[in-house]
Design goal:
Elements (H helix, E strand, L loop, with lengths): L7 E4 L14 E5 L22 E5 L7 E5 L28 E5 H8 L14
Antiparallel strand pairs: 1-3, 2-5, 3-4
This protein binds iron/sulfur cluster (SF4) (2 copies).
């Protein structure tokens, strides 16, 4: 898959109910403002999808790292972001390090068409 790096813990556990049935109109991406919350990412608690938000270690600056979003799993629910409509403040990332981007823009940038449903886990 394109745009995916190896997933490490901590990662989102999910609510066990939400699933992606259709490709969302918007996707979450983390920006360079992501600090990794010193290894205890606040954002992953909000994500309803298992393994959608995951840790990527900074190999040059262990134990630092950052959180990334799996575009094949994200449902665009915006629960991880802190910016609401009309400037309202939501509960998500306290560092405002998550942006929502149009899915078609992400696809154009990466040269891939995302599927509706996520691919099966490896080995299935
Ligand atoms: S996206 Fe925000 S809440 Fe999540 S690890 Fe980065 S800074 Fe912390
Ligand atoms: S938009 Fe929803 S599904 Fe996507 S990363 Fe944020 S909380 Fe998870």
């Amino acid at each position: 898959m394109i745009g995916i790096v190896e997933k490490h813990w901590p990662m989102s556990v999910g609510d066990g109910k939400a699933t992606r049935k259709k490709k969302p109109r918007i996707l979450a991406i983390t920006t360079d403002c992501c600090t990794g919350c010193a290894g205890s990412p606040a954002c992953i608690e909000y994500c309803p999808i298992e393994a959608c938000m995951f840790w990527v270690p900074d190999e040059d600056h262990t134990p630092f790292g950052r959180i990334e979003v799996d575009p094949y799993l994200c449902i665009g629910c915006q629960k991880c972001i802190s910016k609401g409509p009309d400037g309202a403040f939501l509960d998500g990332c306290p560092w405002d390090a998550i942006e929502m981007v149009p899915t078609e823009d992400w696809e154009a940038m990466h040269g891939v068409a995302l599927p509706d449903a996520p691919p099966p886990p490896p080995g299935q």
